[in-house]
Amino acid sequence: MICPKCLNPIDSKTRFCPYCNAPVEEYVAAARSGVDASTAASILTGHSAAVNRYIDLYRAARIMTGLGTTVKTIGLIAAAVIFLFWFIVGIAAASETSNVPFAAQSSAGTVGFFVSTIIGVIFAALVGGLFFLLGVLISAQGQLLMASADCAVCASPFLTDEERASAMSLPYTPPVRAAVAG
């Protein structure tokens, strides 16, 4: 048997799913009485099967958008670490040659500092920029998926306005009807 909430395999004699702790005894009772799986799942979650499908779609879109944000953050952190590494290498190169009494070799340390700093900026921009761009593309795919879900939910003839709001995780306010003056 499969838990209708987290979709992990569970024992048919269990009362609560060991993975998500969802109460499954009502689902099991409904399944044993001959009710189809989607109706039994709606008993557990309180939503219709169509709403459950859209909730999963929105969940996947949010995960994809969050993954893109994580990749962008990793790119920015990697860029900062790469730049700091090369900056420290430049400082070390400048400090090693600055103890020599000749002025020409002292300027070589300064040149080494600037060269390593420029290398750090270039590598940091390449790595950070590529990760950031990849994160933007992943987030954009999540946003496109969410926009497609919005269109599908709004155009679905199988959902009421309250179910549409529930699928989109929005609060539902019933429309106010104007009184007709007589």
Give a structural overview.
- By secondary structure, this protein is mostly helical.
- The protein folds into 2 domains: 13-46, no CATH class; 60-167.
- 69% of the residues lie in helices and 0% in strands.
- Helix 3 (49-97) runs parallel beside helix 5.
- The longest helix has 53 residues, at 103-155.
- The protein is elongated, with a radius of gyration of 29 Å.
Helical coverage, percent range: 55-70%
Would you tell me the structural class of the helices and strands? mainly alpha
Count structural domains.
Answer: 2
User: In DSSP terms, counting alpha (H) and pi (I) runs of 4 or more, how many helices?
Assistant: 5
Could you outline the blueprint of secondary structure elements for this entry?
Elements: H1 25-32, H2 37-45, H3 49-97, H4 103-155, H5 161-167
